[in-house]
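thought: user wants a sequence for this fold. calling inverse folding tool.
action: design(structure=
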C-alpha cells in the first residue's frame, strides 16, 4: 500500500543498528551524505550545502560552518568526527551543486525512511551517551529557553568535538 509506505519513511524514528551498519559500509554519494548526517545531526540540506565550503580547524579540531532554518541553527560550528572527515572532504570538493530534493528522493526510494531519521538517531545516541542537553542543542542548532544557557554559555568547538567522539558507529558499538 502506497500510503503505508509513505508513512513508514516519513516517521521520525531512530535507525536500527542494521540500517546504520548498511549506511556506513557503502561509499556512494547518498550514503556519504547519510553518514555525515548520522555523525553531525545536520539536516540533508545543510550537508548538501557544504559543496565548495572549506573544512576549518581550531586547535587541530576539524569543523564546518553550516546551518539553516532558525537563528540558533544558522552559521553554527559543527565538529567533524574522524570517521566522516574523508566523506565531508568529498562533499566539499564535489564538482557540482548537490540538489537536496534529489538526495531526499533517493534516500526515500533506497531506504524507505526520511533523511530526518539520521538527525533523530544522532540526538538519541548523544542522549544515550549522557551528553548534556545544552551541548546537544549547540551541535544541532536548537534554541534553548534558558537565558544562562542560551545567551551566556559558549562552548569551544573542541568541547563539542569531545562529545561527538563518543559516537562509535563504525566499530559496531552503536
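)
observation: tool returned 174 residues.
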Amino acid at each position: 500500500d502506497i500510503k503505508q509506505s509513505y508513512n513508514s519513511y516519513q516517521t521520525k524514528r531512530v535507525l536500527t543498528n542494521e540500517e546504520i551498519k548498511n549506511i556506513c559500509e557503502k561509499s556512494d554519494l547518498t550514503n556519504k551524505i547519510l553518514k555525515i548526517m548520522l555523525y553531525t545531526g545536520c539536516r540533508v540540506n545543510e550537508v548538501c550545502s557544504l559543496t565548495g565550503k572549506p573544512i576549518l580547524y581550531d586547535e587541530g579540531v576539524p569543523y564546518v560552518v553550516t546551518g539553516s532554518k532558525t537563528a540558533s541553527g544558522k552559521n553554527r560550528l559543527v565538529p567533524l568526527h574522524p570517521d566522516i572527515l574523508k566523506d565531508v572532504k568529498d562533499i566539499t570538493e564535489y564538482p557540482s551543486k548537490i540538489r537536496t530534493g534529489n538526495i531526499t528522493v533517493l534516500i526515500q526510494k533506497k531506504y524507505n525512511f526520511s533523511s530526518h531519521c539520521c538527525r533523530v538517531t544522532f540526538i538519541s545516541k548523544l542522549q544515550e551517551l549522557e551528553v548534556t542537553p545544552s551541548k546537544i542543542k549547540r551541535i544541532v542548532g536548537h534554541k534553548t529557553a534558558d537565558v544562562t544557557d542560551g545567551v551566556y554559555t559558549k562552548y569551544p568547538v573542541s568541547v563539542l568535538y569531545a562529545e561527538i567522539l563518543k559516537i562509535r558507529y563504525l566499530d559496531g558499538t552503536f
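thought: summarizing for user.
answer: Here is the designed sequence. The radius of gyration is 16 Å.
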